């Protein structure tokens, strides 16, 4: 089991529940927009949020942002360790550095001293863009990625800094899996997992589910980010669904049949319209296009609906409790979901 690292009030590692992370895509210096997006991310289920800190103004903005939020904030730093120090002094709860681009060891030492003084963890966040040259020629890319992160971890340990989280990410699923399996054998620190630059929504969902899912099932990973090009709120929804489907987080699920020639109503539309409500419960709700297979296939659901010639039947644990007209399917189903959730 990994060591526990405290990010603000959130515990990461040591068998604590796997947390969800995301990152704002507003300009960090735009305090109002950034705070608004952070609150939306938190409402969606995000546990830890990260902001980019490209300059000193952004580092100083952290102080004002922190005054208006109650979720741990991570400062994402590239190239200049002084930005990390400034972010810590302005209240960042964790620092993420890309070891490949911070430079000389004394900079890491200086940063680690301030992080230690403020009791702020550091994530060594390596990706294939930050491979150390000596490892690149010696190992395959996955191993080079892991060894590059380990090099930085050993450096922090040399400076007696142990409040560490590690991530090794590639946009390639297999490479990410191999790098994480490798590093998990070598460290006791919590691991942040995800497929980096995973692409647009559809592609990312598949790559992230395979990569993150595989690792979590192998008990590797303490905190996750599903990286999606675009709206970060979608990252959080996807991460939640992923954790719920792996039974690592409680949450409702809609199961829906794939539809066929027997389908009696618009299954996709009904499933989509109830999904936001169901996800806030612990119920499994089945939306099935017909009674021929629907009730049997959906019998393990808490509540279900199956299409008939005239409308649909609603069932609970496989037992029909009501028939409803086609036009009132959504309304009746939502009423029952709300009643069952009370
Ligand atoms: S539940 Fe009925 S409509 Fe849906 S796929 Fe199965 S047979 Fe077809």
> Tell me about the biggest sheet?
8 strands, parallel
Provide the gyration radius in Å: 23 Å
Mean of pLDDT: 94
CATH topology name of the largest domain: TIM Barrel
CATH classification class of the largest domain: Alpha Beta
Strand content: 15-25%
Small molecules bound: iron/sulfur cluster
- Quantity of strands, as a count: 15
Report the total helices: 12
Ends: how far apart?
37 Å
For the record, the count of structural domains works out to 2
Q: Based on helices, strands and strand pairing, what is the structural class? A: alpha/beta
CATH-scheme architecture of the largest domain: Alpha-Beta Barrel
Strand order of the largest sheet: 8-7-6-5-4-3-10-9
Low-confidence stretches: none
Order of helices and strands: EEEHEHEHEHEHHEHEHEHEHEHEEEH
What is the approximate shape? Answer: elongated
CATH superfamily membership of the largest domain: Dihydropteroate synthase-like
Q: Share of helix among residues?
A: 40-55%
